[in-house]
Amino acid sequence: MSDALLRLEGVHTRIGQYHILQGVSFVVPKGQVTVLLGRNGAGKTTTLRTIMALWKATEGEIMLSGMNLIGRTTDEIARIGLAYVPENMGIFGGLTVRENMVLAARAGPFDRNRLGWLLDLFPPLRTFWNLPATHLSGGQKQMLSIARALIEKRDLILVDEPTKGIAPVIIEHMITAFEELKRVNTTVLLVEQNFSFASALGDNAVVMDEGRIVHAGPMADLAADRARQKTLLGLSLDAHQ
Amino acid sequence: MRCESDLPASAINRDWAPILLLPVAGVLGFLLTPSTPTWITLTIAGLAMGMMIFIVASGLTIVFGLMDVLNFGHGAFITIGGYVAFAVLSALPGLANSEALSDNILALFVALAVAAISGALVGLAFERLFVRKVYGDHLKQILVTMGGMIIIEQIALMIWGPQERLVSLPPMLRGVVPLDEVAIEKYRILVIAVGSVLFASMQLILARTRIGLLVRAGVEDSEMVQALGYRIRRLFIGVFAAGAALAGVGGVMWVLYRGTLTAGIGGELMTLVFIVIVLGGLGSIGGCFLGAILVAVISNYAAFVAPSLALVSTIAVMVAVLLWRPFGLYPLKK
Fold first, then answer.
1. Fewest Cβ atoms closer than 10 Å to its Cβ: which of A139, A157, A165, B249?
2. pTM over 0.90
3. pLDDT digits (tens, 9 = 90+) for B61-78
4. A84 touching chain B per CB within 8 A
């Protein structure tokens, strides 16, 4: 296994009276796609939000290349090199596609090669470049959200359920796009309930249940073990077969 | 590269329906008034009033949209603007009482600049002392910011006393410009010009600068702006100060329009300001501008036709608009 880029160690998150993450520990190896799987309410989204400090960890360590992220603000973590694609995509609907991308390119003018690569990866963004993002379809918004996360070089991309509510044809397109990201060694932590999508892309699988990690290992092993999939993923697996 | 090319304008679905309310209101006003000169006078007075409300309200709507802060103390910055106008014009009698238009304009612009700076500085202190501790709690925001306004009003009373102050327009800004059968007050023309320039500048900043993009994005989803790596707190503070500066500028214009000044002048305007920002769509500068003009023009027509209906008409406009568009004329695209 490659070096760990991100390491969570005994992370607890409490939101009001609810104890959501209860000692989460796993690693995200550099240059690979790690998929966080689990039933609804298992704590997957909370894990991503905790890494981004959108919710505060009450205990534990979150280390990125040896640097502790605990106690840092969301904007600091983003500037350190994490990009976040939230479940709701976080698109600014009143801004055009171009303006959404301009904001994501914090360092200034676009790297034209990188922009060209992204627009080839997600062609509808080129077509609707000057259109307010509110007019995009769900799939196109998802493409914009991912492109925004990639417009500058980032160490790690956190993506929360990119296939949720997306048409199958767009999911196929997403798989192609993520395969391209893997080809250029982008490190991705992907939350996903669609197991066929997850298994097509993932190098590693981390399964959560009730705020704890219940399985971690190579995706190929989990993909080959149907009985284990049933045990770990249950209904969420059936829903996407 | 293809991405730089513009889409045809027809591809962008602009929302013109709210803008059409203005000509509709104008036509209604025309039908209700007995003569064209009266209608023109009422319309121009309404436009001037609308510009002043817009200047004051624009900062508040952005503050609410971006920071989700209900600042009931915004009127304090209007009061500060009013007293700055009084103090600056009193301190510059050579310019303020001169018979030269350029001197008068200079005195007014010094007052506007000092009011903007004072408003911004007091705004920064207000955010630090009253608002920062109550982010995310609307009830506390209402109570604390109203308390803050009372404190500022009391400080103004301590400094300038309880008596009503007279604030006269510089001589060359008084009187009217005769235009055939219509007489248009010079000051109203100036107010419309200043309001138009400020609106155009705001639109330009919001559309063409990175700060503007950040404000527009932050109004929609401040969490995502943070997740892109921007220090949203700094943006909050900057916008709060800018909103207070605009209220200060509006305070100068309003006090010179009224001609009198008391410590409660800011609070008196706030009902109208809140109607306008709700009607326009919380967080929307375009909506705020349109809402302010609409409310002021309709209120002017109503006051002429049936004076007792002037205030009722503004509330009726708000209710009608909210029945049509529950989130205001230009709701934010979340």
1. A165
2. no
3. 988 888 888 999 999 999
4. yes
